[in-house]
Specification:
single chain; mainly beta; 13-stranded mixed sheet
Amino acid sequence: MLKLRRHRNTILLLACAAVISCGCDRQSEPAPTSADQVSLADPDAEAGLQGAIPFSAAQIFIEYNSTANDAGIQVFLDAEDWKRVSIHDDSGKAILDIDTGGGMRELGLTELRFEGAEPEPSEVLDAFPAGEYSFRGVTIERQRMVSSAFLSHDLPDAPNFTPSQGEVVDPDDAVIEWDPIAGVDRYQVIVETDANHLSLEVSLAPSTTSLRVPPTFLVPNTEYKAEVLAIAPSGNRTIAEGTFVTGP
């Protein structure tokens, strides 16, 4: 789940050497002479993206923690052997620009997933307007890539589930139940504890409203943290958190 704070953004790039700039104003670049020299952050370069191939995956969505009352933007993209990627908002402004270097520029990257910091939800909604976001890239073979994804501001209702208030449960018959939420694409349940550092993560169909935690996962006399996520078709998700304790 999101564990970042306002002062820190984390982007995991498998320890690659990369130059990253987020939403920065950039000076005009000289006229390009090859595909990898075109400024992907320049809206005027859109014409140069004709004939581009799509990303394998391109997603942008909001994760809202209803218990902590914070929210963060999340992005996931996937493509084969790329050396440069940028993401643009509905106005054409670049919100992220990644240009690899060294050996990573020669070999290329594939997946990229990152989370933003977690201020109050209103700050996230103001910083990332609803609309179409474009993903642009260049592979190590100088093939252009382009895809788009719609960022919605509609968030699912917060799941109401039990046990969530520190109730004592039978470790051989622990069942997490929640009220159904209209319009969700799926649910996700996460159960974890600091006692053994194990985590259970299960995705469930929208018609499902309960999950029996496997007895082999639970340890007697132990406190567990539980999270239930309601995930919308847009990818936006709302989390509710709680705890329960296993009996002897």
